[in-house]
Amino acid sequence: MEIESISHDIVIVGGGGAGLRAAIAVAEADPQLSIGMVSKVYPMRSHTVSAEGGAAAVAREDDNFEMHGFDTVKGSDFLGDQDVIQYFVQEAPKELALLEHWGCPWSRNEDGSVATRAFGGMSTKRTWYATDKVGFHMLHSLFQHSMRFEQIVRYDEQFVTKLLVEDGVVRGVASLNIRDGVLRIIRGRAVILATGGAGKIFPFTTNGNIKTGDGMSLAYRAGVPLKDMEFVQYHPTGLPGTGILITEAARGEGGYLRNKDEERFLVERDYGVGTKAELGPRDMISRAIIQEIEAGRGLEGAHGQYMNLDLTHLGEEKIQARIPMVRELSKLYIDVDPVEAPIPIRPVVHYMMGGIDTDIDGATSIRGLYAAGECASVSLNGANRLGSNSLTECLVFGARAGRCAVDFSRGIDEGSDANLRAQAEEEVARIEALRNKRSGNEKISRLREELNTTMESGCGVYREEGSMQASCETIDVIKQRLADVSLQDGSRVFNTELIAAMELANMVDCAEAVARCAVVRKESRGAHTRRDHPHRDDQNFLHHSLAYYEPGSPPRVGTKPVTLGKWEPEERKY
Ligand SMILES: Cc1cc2nc3c(=O)[nH]c(=O)nc-3n(C[C@H](O)[C@H](O)[C@H](O)COP(=O)(O)OP(=O)(O)OC[C@H]3O[C@@H](n4cnc5c(N)ncnc54)[C@H](O)[C@@H]3O)c2cc1C
Which of 21, 263, 322, 327 has its CA 20 to 30 A from that of 174? Predict the structure, then answer.
């Protein structure tokens, strides 16, 4: 059967915050261009929808770009690129105001100005919010606005399995329609990846099931390096058991963290967060919680040790007005009403600082291939992201990648039909073989579980050489065992087992890059904390890590200079 081929000017993979913002930017830059937007789920189900706390941008009189810039540089432990950060802070307020014009209901102060709340590592109240359902409102506004543009053609519930690249130029994607199991070629003169993060490589995470690092793996296998993958963010406050997030807004609104003796340990002991206390950055607070537990000051629960997040002093009125979802989630999932009792929490994997290596335009080393949002590493976040910078990042760099992709697409032809068809035919054969694989000895669920377990034991909040090496070895074995996986479902219609098998392969790529880069970085910086190398080492490691795909062997790990600027590296203390 002939493989169907559809052509657009620009193809966007992902319908979350970054993908939708990119699509709108393309449509506005040139109304003549047609845009194909592929998403493995209906766009409103993208992970962006679950963001709770808010989006950062300078809005108040006591704030300025210099402060937002420095907070971000310091938060990144000096591994963020300063040109990127300066551009980001300047664009941020414009993007959030634009979103309001498209319908986003930002919460307001009494006088009608935009309300902002405090967030970790930020030196003033800078986080715009719409109660604590920020991602829902942002994504809704973007999605509805995107519907005004007829030239945005959606391919929902379609799974991109491969980038089609010819002589170093991307020509489109191979996309499997999950509904009927048919693979198509979707051609574009530029492709933007906006596929989100890879938190599911860990067992205990706030991330939705779809966050399997697909786009990172697509780019990586096509030859683009993954950057700074060793930096994995733990959010200090997840619900034990499920990993459901209790937003940082709970602390932004004045919540306290307490140990089993009811001490505010961030105030009582020196964990580097100074007077910021509960509003210190996420990496430091996550480490403090682990240290408290190790010192015997944790509370014992059904899912291991935990700390308490105490909101009782805030009062019902404030909790209901500012963080109603926090109350809803804790009542629903752990039967605790935070008005009356503290919420049990523990650190939980939340966000990937690393991702597809891009420049400030979102451009990668493959011509015509762009990336934005959580799947990309434009180097805004360096070694540790500040909460609420990432939703804004999706807007600022989604828009920029969209505009730059338009410029690129003007000077480029469509590529050779025969070459793309040959690649797509190979892809059909590969997927058919997988779909019909009944003979293997391995189960997807077991391999995924083993991958999760080794990532947690080797690449958790605290790391050391031996356990990281053990993770690398386990991942090597999992990679080989992956070839022996067998599927039970041979159908074409909504074959979620087939999708899970391909997602697992993508997760293995991401996990391997995390573990291999972590071993090489023999220092502690941001979220990468090694017990055997407890200090930051600017002499030897003030650079980005790059993981290059090597067929049949572990990635080659290289480096890339950090773009410094007016903010000189200094000790990171609050
Ligand atoms: C619970 C939670 C709360 C958060 N709260 C905040 C917050 O308050 N403030 C903040 O700044 N950040 C927050 N974050 C982080 C932030 O929400 C995310 O980093 C951001 O929304 C990512 O957006 P994205 O567009 O890059 O990806 P996503 O929203 O994850 O979207 C990815 C898209 O790619 C598509 N896709 C993926 N793979 C494929 C494939 N193979 N084929 C086709 N399509 C594919 C998916 O269908 C989806 O549409 C939170 C994250 C979580 C998990």
Answer: 21
Strands ordered across the beta sheet of 183-187: 5-7, 183-187, 169-177, 158-166
Give yes or no: 251 in active site: yes
Specify whether the backbone of 363 is left (phi greater than 0), alpha (psi in -120 to 50) or beta.
Answer: beta
Mean pLDDT of the region 432-442: 95
Instruction: State the DSSP H helix or E strand holding residue 158, giving kind and residue range, or none if neither.
Output: strand 158-166
Q: Is the pTM of this model over 0.90?
A: yes
Residue 33 in tokens: 């261009």
User: 154 in helix, strand or coil?
Assistant: strand
Residues contacting ligand 1 via CB (< 6 Å): 13-19, 38-41, 43, 46-48, 50-55, 134-135, 159-160, 194-197, 206-207, 210-211, 214-215, 245, 247, 351, 373-375, 388-391, 394
Angle at 500 between CA 367 and CA 216, to 5 degrees: 25
Distance from Cα 17 to the centre of ligand 1, integer Å: 7
User: Domains of the chain (ranges plus CATH)?
Assistant: 5-231+353-417 (3.50.50.60), 240-349 (3.90.700.10)
Distance from Cα 97 to the centre of ligand 1, integer Å: 21
Element (H, E) at 252: helix 249-252
3-state secondary structure of 359: coil
Q: How many CB atoms lie within 10 A of CB 334?
A: 19
Reported as a single tens digit per residue, the pLDDT across 161-171 is: 999 999 999 99
CA distances from 414 to 71, 138, 174, 192, 434 (A): 44, 34, 15, 16, 30
| Per-residue pLDDT, 31 | 97
At 273-322, the pLDDT tens digits run 999 999 999 999 999 999 999 999 999 999 999 999 999 999 999 999 99
DSSP 8-state symbol, 385: P
- Average pLDDT estimate for 17-29: 98
Residues 6+ apart with CB under 8 A from 107: 114, 115, 128, 129, 130, 131
What is the DSSP-derived secondary structure letter of residue 542?
Answer: -
